[in-house]
Amino acid sequence: MSRFLMTRTLDESSAEAALGADVLRGLTSVPKTLPPKWFYDTRGSELFEEITRLPEYYPTRAEREILLERASEIAAASGARTLVELGSGSSEKTRHLIEAMPALDLYVPVDVSASALEGAAETLLAEHPGLRVHALLADFTRPLELPESPGPRLVLFLGGTIGNLLPGERAGFLKAVRAMLSPGDALLLGTDLVKDEATLVAAYDDAAGVTAEFNRNVLAVIDRELDADFHAADFDHVAVWDREREWIEMRLRARHELSVKIRALDLVVPFAAGEEIRTEVSAKFRQEGVRAELASAGLELTEWWTDAAGRFALSLATAA
Fold it and tell me: Taking the model in full, what pTM does it have?
């Protein structure tokens, strides 16, 4: 039997339809918005990998530090034989955890990129001959049907990606994760923590301008996929800290008055000078808030690990 399987619930036409629906809804709303998932075409993914190596961008290093230091504790606390990773990407950080789980039987990466799933599986299977990989080409924000798998299962949602969801979206997502879990299963959740404003803003507005290019890349995606005529040079990258909501917002601000044609949608979008598109929210968390949000979804926080500087946290939660 093959050690690698892929189940596809997405295809190119469904992805294009989803992009079109998001652009139509977001660019005709007030204020204008775009979901951050559309940053990640091939170029966007390359730029994000570059961002993770920037001196200002601490979350990836902080989370990797926790995984390296605590992998054996996480493995022992979960006892997992199946690992399900939502938004798995290259699965690079997950390798540290898999190495600490000799009893692991099945890895289920979930991502919207078939090439990322295939590349990660190839690397992991070469390193772990006894492992099976059943990849799901799917959008983890939609209901998922997981393959038959041995328990206990550990669901991973790393990278602080939970912060890209608005509070209502987070509540719905956590309830959906809870519905996946059987007795003995657990969720390992990565959350970036509240800290000083200067550190937070610098992480999303680096001196080299890589994050600015990453932000504007969403316009190139719309141009290519929906036959639009955005010009990146017409928009400034903006990153601001919302103290009340405790989240970073990334925005694109029009440098002058302009109109953009999106031919695939038969849509013309006007912009006033200085008008903004919110492209990402990145919420930051405190332990008590994480505990409360998990509890509202029927999950009980049982373990909490941070990096040495207290910048980032991994939390383990079980079905309450």
Answer: 0.93
